Amino acid sequence: MPPYPRADERKTMVERQIAARGIRDPRVIAAMLEIPRHLFIPPPYDRAAYDDNPLPIGSGQTISQPYIVALMTELLHPKATDTVLEIGAGSGYQAAILSRLVRRLTTIERITPVANLARTNLESLGIDNVIVIEGDGTLGYPKNAPYNGIIVTAATPEIPPPLIRQLADGGTLVLPVGGRDVQDLITLHKEGGSLLQESHGAVRFVPLIGHHGWERRIS
Ligand code: SAM
């Protein structure tokens, strides 16, 4: 497949924002070089698609900073045989990256126009191993469980229990946990019935709204 437009900008993005900050997995680097981030961002912000920032995608939501997408993807340790769940489809960009690295991805989005944006963007690249489901991702998606990996791309005050239940043995959950303004990016690895939690630094995400997210705490 010939490279998508703006390949030079992606190369600079990967060198300066991703490899320079320690992302080493060659499969992750290859996916970040290939997937055209600018096609996931509505104008006029698409012009800034390869900058070192999150950007607006409509409905008050954002596409994450490229480095954070690469970091969360690497922390997931995706394998070509994996079945993965993403909570927070947003633009579909993180899903497109994962589509190159796993067998099958289910991604959930609670806002209808945003779910439609993700679907349109993924279809426009001919990606056919991702399904976009509309709903409350804090409940997971039991129909396709168990998952070898689960990635949550919105901030949650606590780890939603259904996601722990739907994680396969040997699987990894990656998510930002904490307050409204700042969270800790954590991984939870399930092995033989026990859970190993690790912290990977401070991040800032839009809130995860739902049964096991923020809604309950605010009302
Ligand atoms: N992964 C996205 C991308 O690549 O563009 C970025 C996601 S954006 C930072 C967070 C998304 O999570 C928003 O689109 C928001 O609507 C969604 N969201 C928030 N709470 C949710 C929930 N309970 N279930 C599913 N999606 C949710």
What does this structure look like?
The chain is α/β, with parallel strands linked by helices and 219 residues long. The chain has one domain: Rossmann fold. The protein is 28% helix and 27% strand. It has seven helices and nine strands. The chain has helices at residues 7-18, 26-34, 66-76, 93-99, 112-124, 161-166, 215-218; strands at 55-58, 61-63, 83-87, 104-109, 130-134, 147-152, 167-178, 183-191, 194-203. It has a seven-stranded mixed beta sheet with strand order 5-4-3-6-7-8-9. Strands 1-2 form a two-stranded antiparallel ribbon. A hairpin with a 4-residue loop joins strand 7 (167-178) and strand 8. Helix 1 (7-18) packs antiparallel against helix 2 and helix 1 packs across helix 3 (66-76). It is globular and about 45 Å long. S-adenosylmethionine binds next to strand 2, helix 4 and strand 4.
Q: What's the name of the CATH homologous superfamily?
A: Vaccinia Virus protein VP39
What ligands are attached or bound here? S-adenosylmethionine
Q: What is the number of domains?
A: 1
Count of discrete alpha- or pi-helical segments spanning 4 or more residues: 7
Average pLDDT, all residues: 96
The CATH architecture category equals: 3-Layer(aba) Sandwich
Short description:
With 219 residues, the chain is an alpha/beta fold. It contains seven helices and nine strands. S-adenosylmethionine binds at residues 61-64, 87-88, 90-91, 93-94, 108-111, 114, 136-138, 153-154, 205-206, 208-210, 213.
Labels describing this entry:
two-stranded antiparallel ribbon, 219 residues, single chain, 7 helices, alpha/beta, binds S-adenosylmethionine, 7-stranded mixed β-sheet, Rossmann fold
